[in-house]
Amino acid sequence: MSNVFSFTGTVGRDAEVRVTPSGQSVLNITVANNIGFGDRQQTLWVRVALWGKRAEGSLQNYLKKGQQVFVSGELSQREYQANDGTTRTSLELNANIIDLVGKRNGQGQPQQQDYQQTSQPSNSPSSLDDFDDVPF
Prior knowledge:
Layout lengths: L4 E7 L4 E4 L5 E11 L6 E10 L1 H4 L11 E14 L5 E14 L36
Parallel strand pairs: 4-6
Antiparallel strand pairs: 1-3, 1-5, 2-3, 3-4, 5-6
């Protein structure tokens, strides 16, 4: 059985890339996912790590606080002692996929790109009337 957890959320702070003593790169972000509705809405925080060559690319430049992302990977839970002595749990995800899925919060209007259409002949029908001879 496979342990795959996928969700969308918002990056909580800018991504940081570190290199382990063994020389492997790791990109770390924390992603917030809102669950529930109305008065019962809660925010679930997940620590996400992307390892290896994928962590070394330019993805770090786009994973800024407020960016909406889709994340998928293997989920684990870790317990640790907080400074006040209480035992806390942390959700951690070793990511296979991190995709940007929207503009950053507070970024304003998305950038518009101009695409020029060239008039080229097309074999596609120009209206629905051209579909009269379709047998279904």
